[in-house]
Design goal:
Helices cover 34% and strands 19% of the residues. By secondary structure, the chain is of the alpha+beta class. A 5-stranded mixed β-sheet has the order 3-4-6-5-7. It has a two-stranded antiparallel ribbon with strand order 1-2. Helix 2 crosses helix 4 (116-133).
Length: 170
């Protein structure tokens, strides 16, 4: 689906935002077709549902419509797909990404949160979604860095999901 000259993986999530990185790469952090399909599944099956449910429960006023309300909050994606080159640059910059990161296959996304309360609400919605739909995730972590910034790390593989849940501080 295309909107504003961007390729959208689902109604609200573009390939551009799922591949955005602050590291300069020769290939522009371009994912393979397999990784694009993984990102599409992540967006359609998980992120659209998270966005809708969070807004319906916590943002909309009684009688407001999800499609037209100014109260609807977007999910802010801080990282999605990471190429090998991005991973190498992260290591050079002093980060410690896992060499088997789900981000390498387009199976993971990091969602910025306004604080611990929003992070916990997102996590609960995602766990409930997994239970209600009988779909599973590989990793669901509430994370916080040294500067006090929170995010949700969600990873969903095509198969072999482990349902790892945790709260991580870096």
């Amino acid at each position: 689906m295309q909107k504003n000259q961007q390729l959208y993986l689902s109604e609200h999530f573009s390939l551009g935002e799922m591949t955005r990185t602050r590291f300069q790469t020769k290939d522009g952090n371009a994912p393979s077709l397999e990784s694009i399909n993984n990102l599409k599944r992540l967006c359609e099956d998980w992120l659209e549902e998270l966005r809708y449910t969070y807004n319906a429960l916590y943002c909309l006023q009684p009688g407001e419509d999800y499609e037209t309300s100014a109260s609807v909050e977007p999910l802010v994606i801080s990282q999605g797909y990471r190429s090998e080159e991005v991973m190498e640059q992260m290591i050079r910059a002093g980060y410690h990404p896992s060499p088997t990161s789900n981000h390498l296959k387009g199976c993971a996304v990091d969602i910025r949160c306004a604080g611990i309360e929003q992070a916990l609400r997102y996590a609960v919605i995602l766990i409930d979604l997994a239970d209600d739909t009988r779909r599973d995730f590989d990793e669901l972590f509430v994370e916080r860095n040294r500067r006090g910034i929170y995010w949700i790390h969600l990873a969903v593989r095509a198969a072999g999901n482990r349902r790892k849940v945790g709260i991580l501080e870096g």
